[in-house]
Structures are given as structure tokens and as C-alpha cells.
Protein 1
Amino acid sequence: MSLSTVAVGLALALDAALGEPPTRVHPVAWFGRLVAPLDRPWTRPRLAGALATVALPLVAALTVGGVVAAAGAWRPLAGAVAGGLALFLTTSLRRLLSVAREVTALTETDLDAARAELRALAGRDAAALSAGEVRSAVVESVSENLADGLVAPLGAFVVLAVVGALLPSAGALRPGLDPAVAAVALGAAGAAWVKAVNTMDSMLGYRSKPVGWAPARLDDAVMWAPARASAVLIAAASLSPGSVLAARRWLDRVPSPNSGWPMGTVAAALGVRLVKPGAYDIDADAPLPTADDAERAVRRVGLAGGLAYLGAGAVTYVGAGVFTWA
């Protein structure tokens, strides 16, 4: 088994067992503290944002990749463990599904509490939302965050880990470093870079913040493939291949160039309406999600996440073998 596959398996096991570390010790939260000072008036806000968008994710990637490479230089298995820990810290599935289930349950027992808890999933004013609209937000959030929180960093890890298997022939990275360790280090750096870009977008990427223009545009580009891959995974988990094509009908109703794919696929697979007041209305002729609909969406996104991990493990395993035989 390749070290990259070990790292993917470890990340899955840690997510299943632990969910996420507390915010106070989470490296992504630490990175957020580096980003926070950017949220202020600037003489040239777009330039400031662009420079930070280049520098900060690169710092995150080099730091994580360097730590994994250093651990692997000591012991290759230690590199795999460090890579798996990095991947675990840059991805999220269990916590997402857990919060979604909590909010869904509260919509039937305590709507005010459901509106309050929704803040952990969706950044919108929930004070006037009906129970169905809260559940709609839950379904939208779990589908969109499958792409942002799992598929994007996991995909970056896989692609760069496979590319890393080519490094010995290219004479790249660090002389004398085990090629399998180099692959894990490069994959971990890629996952950290994607997570950093997404974090900057989530903190700064609003129309009201000119400094967030560059993070938002870069995040749009980075998320192009993960959003569409997530739609395919959701369709597979729902046994509804046609739902991806159906989602195309509503793409022009969603401001984001990417989030409409997983959200529209879920809407089509479940036959429900997803609406963010004042922003978009997907499948407006269908009913808003019931609690059972929202639970089904959570289960299907969970299964789609499992398929993503399974695919990542298979690609890293086969990829390492192909380059070893070559």
C-alpha cells in the first residue's frame, strides 16, 4: 500500500472518530487569524487582497509540505501519518453532517433554536425563515460544503500525490527524499493551499469587501472541478444519474459559478425546492424540504463523501503502483 493511500485512510479514520478538533487548536482557525487583519480599509484594496492571496496560501502550503517532508525524512511511515493528519485538518465531513442533523431535528421541535444553530452551516439572516426554508438552507449547505470542505482539498491531495510520484524522474523536491514521502508531502501541501484559498474566500469574498475580490476569483477557479465532481458523487449516491443534467436548468439562477451544481443535483434527486431569499430559487415549482427530505440529503451527502474517500484511496494506490512499475 502506498504512503499516500495510508494518509487518505488515516484522514478518513480520524474524521470518523473525532470529527474536528476544537477551534482553539485548529490550524485552519490559526490561519484565519492571519487573514483577519486584511479585513479593513485599504488605499488599494484589490492590490492588497491579490498580494495576500498569493502569499498566505503559499505560506500554508510550504509549511504543511515541509512538516510532512521532515517527518518522512525521519521515517517514511511518520511522513504518511503527518500527511494523513494534514489531510484530516484540511477536510471535514462528520462535523458537517452532525450539525446538519441537529438543525434538521430542531426544525420540528424548536424553530428559534434551529434558526440560531443554522449559523454554524449557512451565513444568512435566519430570523424570518420558515421551518422549510431552514431545512432548505441545511440541504444547500451540506451539498455545497461537500465540495468546499472535502472534495476540493481531498482532490488536490490526490492529484498532487500522483504528480509527486513523478518527481524522482524530474529530479524535483528534495534530493534523497523517499519518492513516496515526496508524494505525500506534495499532496498535503496541495490540500493546505486549497483550504487556505477557501478560508480566505469565506472570510473576505463578499461584494462589500473590495479586498476580497482576488480570493473570491481564485476560489471560483479552484472550485470549478470539485463542484462538478461533487455533483457527480451526489448523483451516484442518490442512484440518480439524471440529476446532474437536471441541475443545469437552474444554474443561471445561482450567483456562484460552482455551488449550483451540487445544490441543483440534490434538489433534482430529492424533488425539492431550495431557496435563499433574495439570492436564488432552485426548482421553484417543487415543495420545500420536509425533515425526512433533509435527512435523506444528509445521508446521501455522507455517502457521496465516502465515495470520495474511496476514490481517493483507489487513485493513490493505483497511481503509486503505475509509477513504480514504470
Note: The first strand starts at residue 274 and ends at 276.
Protein 2
Amino acid sequence: MIGALAGAIEQGLIYGIMALGVYLTFRVLDFPDLTVDGSFVTGAATAAMMIVLGYSPWIATIVAFGAGFIAGIGTGLLHTKGGINPLLSGILMMIALYSINLRIMGWTVENSVGRPNIPLLQSETIFSQVLSFATSLGIPTSFVVLVIAAVAVTLVKISVDLFLKTEIGLALRATGDNKKMIRSFSANTDRLTILGLAISNGLVAFAGALIAQYGKFADVGMGIGMIVIGLASVIIGEAIFGTKSIVRITLAVVVGAVIYRIVLALALRIDFLDTGDMKLLTAIIVVLALILPKRLAKISKSRNRSKRISPSQVKGEVSLAKHS
């Protein structure tokens, strides 16, 4: 049980990076970007392919971010220059990335034949390298993976916080709030939209690269439903912590990802559920996260109203109605 919870927290922290990318598009840019399901795999496939070919896992992870960044630019160009609907732009890029990801993973074999997965069981990853380093120093390795994940998501969170407070970041936020207003200040909203999508998918691909190294494999189907997981993390975090400031929101998104993984891990402990039910559980968690905050808000509103009306006021209103 403790091991399952530790694993859920580790995965939750890594998925928190992906959730931060989803937050940038859905909340900051107000752009429903479905590229995420494809760019997550692009990051995993790129990192795995480079590691198998003998490159450093650190370099492979950085290149994976770049691959996701390019995928985001593609979606942005389809929408801004092609005039395609935001939702359809993401779907088209996601479909295109499926074939691209097969080709990327096929680079590890002769003639670049499409390949659905890459195992990393015998390969060095960021996690295995740090574990080896900790062992050589005599440091206990029980929480090394947790520390790596925590450091990675903290650095990304701080970077996102700082970026959103810069001039470009503020312009990006304004673009999501009101495009017409930001255009009146001679800002190029097309470029800002492309930049936001590129950074978002770069973060998603970065998370995919880490997950591939964490699970010791990359698979073409590992990105299915990733956008729903990201949304679940954002919604859960916002429902618990609120949206008062950028620092608080990004923290809420990361914690939301961890809570989501913990809930999923606990749910899978139930006897009649198995890993095949993960997508169903994800959908149920998202539905509950969307409905419960609204229901609780309505209940608290009705309670506040009843507290404001005193019994004497009620009696006075009743007597007044009788006399009239």
C-alpha cells in the first residue's frame, strides 16, 4: 500500500509538468488544444529513441522538449495562418503525430520502419544515473526518484510563474482574456498564440520523456486520454486551492495531478477494478471534479442566505402578509 502511494506521488509530480502545459492552453490562452495526446508520445518517443541510439538521457529529454515545442508551433500555424478552428487544429495535429511518432521510434531500426514501442529496460535513464550516483555516495535510494520528480516539477513551476509575469507572459494572458483588446495595443496575437501552444506542448513532451524513462518504455498508445488527465489535474487543483494568483494556481495544478494519481491508485486497489478501467475512472473523477464544486457552492450560498434572514424578519414578513 505504501509502495503504491509512493509510486502514485512520483507519477503525479511528473504528470504535474504535463498538467502545467495543459493549464497554459486551456486556462491562460483559452485554447482547447488536443495536440497533447500526440505531443506527450512525441516526447516519450524522441527521448527513448535517442537513449537507445546512445545519447545522454539528459540531452534526450531536452530534445524531447524541442520536439513538443515544434508540434505546438504546427498546431498554432494551422489555427492562426490556416484559419482552422482551434479544436480541429489540435485534432489534426494529434492525428498527424501518431504517424510521426511511429516513424520516430522506427529510427532505432534499419530503414526507419514504423515501430509502436521502444523498451528501455537495458538502457540508462536520468533516474538510473541519479540512483547509481546516490549509491556510489552511500545515500539511501528509497526516495531518490521522488526527489528527482519533485525537483523537476518545481523548476518547471517556477519557470512558468516567472514567464507569466514577464511582458510576453502578461501579453499571453491578455490574449486569452480578450484578443480584441490586446490587438488594440498593436500586439501580434497570432505570434502569442503560437508561442503559448509551443511552450505548452514542449512541457507536455518533456513530461512524456520523463514518464518513458520512469516506466522504462515508450509506446505509441501511451498518450491516449492524456488531455483528460491534464484537465482533471487542473480542475481538481482549482477546486481545492482556488485561483487567486499565478503562483497559487500553478501549485494547485501540480497538487491536483498528485491527488488525481493517488485517487486512481486507491481506486485500483478495489477488487473488481483493474488497469483496463483507468480511463473510466479518469472520466468519473473529471465529472465529479466538475460537478461537486458547483453543488457545494450552491449549498453554501443557500446557507448564507438563510443565516442573513433572522426569525424576527420572517415573523414580520408573515404578519405583514396577513394584514395586507
Note: The mean pLDDT is 85.
